[in-house]
């Protein structure tokens, strides 16, 4: 290689340079007639430019610019503590999403190749943002009696502030997920949390129950964006082999909300009135908006548009007339209306596929049972023989919340372990790489974890119903029952959400949006009907009815997926055009499987070291 130089008189020449291996951080390149070496540093990409036959001088440029006369559009390769060295960083001027240039964590070309620490940071930010929506519903539960007195409303009407909030959380994610697939994740996060802050503040200054319900609907719809888009973000940055654990951490956010919101709501409403709970949500939303603004880059895969053929203009064609221009304008307006009003609803058509329908049904039954339990706790402990204050009522939600956190922490690792075990047992390997890699299927996640969960939470609900009315002497029994209910229901939520992102790998946020729509609609119905049913048939018989229904249908859903899931998934993949790897079911001996398992473990360890 020759490096350009010049003598003291300014004449250029070439100086022979011995060949040597490229150092780490250097990269050979060739663009047009240019060849040279790119040297990455912490500050800039330095390029030594070699122009054959011309003997130019070595130049250093930012953003990989070869020369003023021949700029390129290649990505920046500046090193960063957030990304791996071989993962190019998108220059600030080209970053996507609202105010994308201000993010501390840079956008990269391949989000799956972020360092592990960066992935966990992004996951934690999304999880905390996801806590806002359930916090908005749980924070109101201890304050409902005070709210009813101040605004002169009945218990059933005040329950609508929770039920309508949940209904909005079921509908709005259809639009958020649809827009996120085109506008990107970051833009949706910033817009929705700005709306959440505004509507939470308006809820705090509501003058009557009607205004409060309307503001709660809008606030619930705004906060619900993360429940659908957040799961898409997790799928953007985590490989399937590690996605179960990451999804478990993600779900810690929505479950931290139910843990702290009743305590916070009870304490604030007892000391400052119910309006203080809405001001708390306003502050929380503002803090999360700042974290998203600075710490959450765009992670949606950058889809390259197809290049349209360039056609030469027809000299004989007539110029555009007013009629054709008007027709095009009408067509464009109709297309825009369709995109904003109709297209988001089309994601509900995914329910025609049995894997999606049965998975969503399993989560919806569990979620509806959860809100029956929430209303029952508030109703039971605010009346004789307990007559607890709002603060103590808030403490009664601690037991199920601790169950959610326990299952979220353990359940994700359990999911990944079960999936790997089932793939090994079936002998599914991708032999196109060396060593062969396991091929994971969504239905692999349904093992003993789902059988346990589908029986644990319904039976726990029944036990709670029969022990909650026994008074303080036996108060430990319903507390233990609600803890186990939290464990069982969370195992269902985590498994179903992860499977939906894998059943629909190219439409992950849409699959989760469908799940949120159905389950939040069911929870809305449960929140509305729970109190009248408790008054009509009693707490124990309501819990018995809901528990038996959930136990029978939940186990039936698992049985159908285990028996027919693979066939249904293949039909769904063909219909959606999902790219599915060829599965090698060749028979291997136990020694071969053991050796492959060891090679896979060794490769995973090496990958973890490289990513750190």
UniProtKB/TrEMBL annotation:
InterPro entries: MFS (IPR011701), MFS_dom (IPR020846), MFS_trans_sf (IPR036259)
Protein's cellular compartments: Membrane
Alphabetized UniProt keyword annotations: Membrane, Transmembrane, Transmembrane helix
Membrane topology: Multi-pass membrane protein
UniProt-listed PROSITE patterns: MFS (PS50850)
Domain of life: Eukaryota
SUPFAM superfamilies hit by this protein: MFS general substrate transporter
Keyword Transmembrane (UniProt): yes
Pfam family, one: MFS_1
Transmembrane helix as UniProt keyword: yes
Protein name in the entry: Dityrosine transporter
Segments forming domain Major facilitator superfamily (MFS) profile: 122-565
Regions that span the bilayer: 120-144, 156-176, 188-207, 213-237, 249-272, 278-296, 356-377, 397-415, 450-468, 474-496, 517-534, 540-561
Region described as Disordered: 1-87
Record Gene3D superfamilies: MFS general substrate transporter like domains
Location (main, coarse): membrane
């Amino acid at each position: 290689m020759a490096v350009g130089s010049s003598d003291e008189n300014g004449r250029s020449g070439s100086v022979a340079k011995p060949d040597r291996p490229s150092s780490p951080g250097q990269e050979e390149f060739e663009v047009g007639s240019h060849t040279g070496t790119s040297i990455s540093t912490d500050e800039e990409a330095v390029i030594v430019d070699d122009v054959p036959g011309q003997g130019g001088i070595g130049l250093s440029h930012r953003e990989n610019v070869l020369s003023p006369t021949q700029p390129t559009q290649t990505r920046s390769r500046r090193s960063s503590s957030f990304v791996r060295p071989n993962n190019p960083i998108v220059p600030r001027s080209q970053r996507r999403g609202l105010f994308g240039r201000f993010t501390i964590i840079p956008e990269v070309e391949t989000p799956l190749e972020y360092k592990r620490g960066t992935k966990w940071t992004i996951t934690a930010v999304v999880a905390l943002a996801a806590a806002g929506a359930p916090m908005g519903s749980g924070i109101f539960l201890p304050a409902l009696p005070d709210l009813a007195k101040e605004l002169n409303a009945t218990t059933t009407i005040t329950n609508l502030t929770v039920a309508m909030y949940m209904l909005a959380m079921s509908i709005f994610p259809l639009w958020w997920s649809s827009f996120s697939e085109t506008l990107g994740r970051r833009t949706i996060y910033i817009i929705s949390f700005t709306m959440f802050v505004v509507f939470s503040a308006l809820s705090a200054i509501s003058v009557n129950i009607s205004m409060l319900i309307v503001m709660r609907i809008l606030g619930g719809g705004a906060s619900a964006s993360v429940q659908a888009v957040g799961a898409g973000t997790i799928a953007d940055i985590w490989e399937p082999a590690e996605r179960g654990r990451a999804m478990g951490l993600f779900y810690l956010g929505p479950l931290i909300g139910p843990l702290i919101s009743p305590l916070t709501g009870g304490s604030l409403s007892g000391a400052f009135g119910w309006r203080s709970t809405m001001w708390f949500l306003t502050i929380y939303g503002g803090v999360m908006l700042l974290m998203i603004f600075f710490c959450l880059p765009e992670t949606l895969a950058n889809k390259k548009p197809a290049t349209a053929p360039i056609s030469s203009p027809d000299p004989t064609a007539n110029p555009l007339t007013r009629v054709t221009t008007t027709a095009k304008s009408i067509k464009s307006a109709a297309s825009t209306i369709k995109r904003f009003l109709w297209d988001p609803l089309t994601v509900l058509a995914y329910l025609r596929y049995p894997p999606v329908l049965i998975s969503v049904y399993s989560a919806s039954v569990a979620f509806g049972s959860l809100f029956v339990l929430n209303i029952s706790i508030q109703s039971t402990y605010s009346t004789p023989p307990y007559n607890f204050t709002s603060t103590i009522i808030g403490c009664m939600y601690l037991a199920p919340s601790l169950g959610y956190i326990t299952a979220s922490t353990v359940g994700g690792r359990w999911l990944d372990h079960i999936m790997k075990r089932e793939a090994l047992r079936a002998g599914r390997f991708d032999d196109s790489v060396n060593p062969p890699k396991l091929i994971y299927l969504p239905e692999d996640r349904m093992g003993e974890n789902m059988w346990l969960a589908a029986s644990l939470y319904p039976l726990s609900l029944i036990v709670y119903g029969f022990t909650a009315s026994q008074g303080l002497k036996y108060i430990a029994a319903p507390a233990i029952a609600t803890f186990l209910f939290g464990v069982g229901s969370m195992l269902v939520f985590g498994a179903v959400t992860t499977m939906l992102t894998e059943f629909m790998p190219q439409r992950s946020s849409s699959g989760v949006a469908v799940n949120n729509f159905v389950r939040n609609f069911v929870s809305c119905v449960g929140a509305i009907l729970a109190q009248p049913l408790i008054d009509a048939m009693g707490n124990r018989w309501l819990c018995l009815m809901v528990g038996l229904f959930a136990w029978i249908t939940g186990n039936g859903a698992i049985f159908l997926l285990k028996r027919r899931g693979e066939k249904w998934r293949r039909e769904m993949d063909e219909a959606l055009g999902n790219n599915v790897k060829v599965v090698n079911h060749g028979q291997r001996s136990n020694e071969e499987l053991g050796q492959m398992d060891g090679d896979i473990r060794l490769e995973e360890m090496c990958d973890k070291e490289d990513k750190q």
